[in-house]
Amino acid sequence: MKVISLLAQKGGVGKTTLTLHWAVEAERQGMGSVAVIDTDRQRSAIKWFERRGEDSPLMLQANENNLTDAIEACKENGVDLVLVDSMPHAGTSSLVAARMADLAVIPCGHSVLDIEAIGDTISIINRAKTPGVIVVNRGRHHSRITEQAADLLKDYGLPVCPTRIMRWAALEDAFIDGRAVAEVEPNSKAAHQITDSWEWILKQLKRT
Q1: What burial class does residue 182 get, using C-beta atoms within 10 Å of its C-beta: 0-12 exposed, 13-18 middle, 19+ buried?
Q2: Can you give the CATH number for the domain in which 65 is found?
Q3: Chain centroid, CA 119 distance in Å
């Protein structure tokens, strides 16, 4: 079983959005049984699952005190891949999520505030001694600022996903009835960016 934790100490960078889209994408690509563990008190991933009305991906809720138990339960029940949607501004639970992960994925926006805040998250994965990568998310259309942000993020010394995920309405609209963009608009640019970014993450996971 492999575990990927999405971490960001700053809120609003799209952790939950990417977690859920990638979970569906992983199942679409035949990765077997996929589980999402929602550690956010807002329960956004849990609410999406309730609207979805399906049994997959599997959905669990946990906190810093029982996250380890939740991951172990997934392993005991034959889950092949676990995606952990972590909380912002929660150093302790983020550290636990990082330590339990085979790979930590750090979503980051293009703003200066997003880029400056990422250092705290990198410190957490360094403490956990977990390999990490950065994904530029919620990019601005038809603007050089997204690529400029990616160039700045490379200075942190972690691999940066070559696919920039733009701020597509389809990524959020798909959640209205508990679906993912690949199930609503499979031929859209948004769907292709989710697929391409996920395939890149899998390559990084294999390297670990």
Answers
A1: buried
A2: 3.40.50.300
A3: 17
The mean per-residue pLDDT over the stretch 56-60 comes to 96
- The contacts of residue 69 (CB under 8 Å, 6+ apart) are 62
pTM above 0.85, yes or no: yes
Instruction: Report the percentage of the chain scoring pLDDT > 90.
Output: 89
**How many folded domains does the chain comprise?**
1
| pLDDT (0 to 100) of residue 87 | 87
Cβ(104)–Cβ(78) under 8 Å? no
- Measured distance CA(102)–CA(207) in Å, rounded: 10
Task: Give start and end residues of each alpha helix (H) in 78-188.
Answer: 91-100, 112-128, 145-153, 169-173, 181-184
82 close to 37: Cβ distance less than 8 angstroms: yes
Which is nearest to 20 in space by CA: 200, 193, 194?
194
Q: Which residue has the tokens 């100490």?
A: 9
Q: Is 157 a residue whose pLDDT tops 70?
A: yes
Query: Could you give phi then psi for residue 47, rounded to 5 degrees?
Result: -65, -40
Domain of residue 32, residue span = 2-207
Give, in order, the Cα–Cα distances in Å from 163 to each of 70, 129, 147, 159: 31, 25, 10, 12
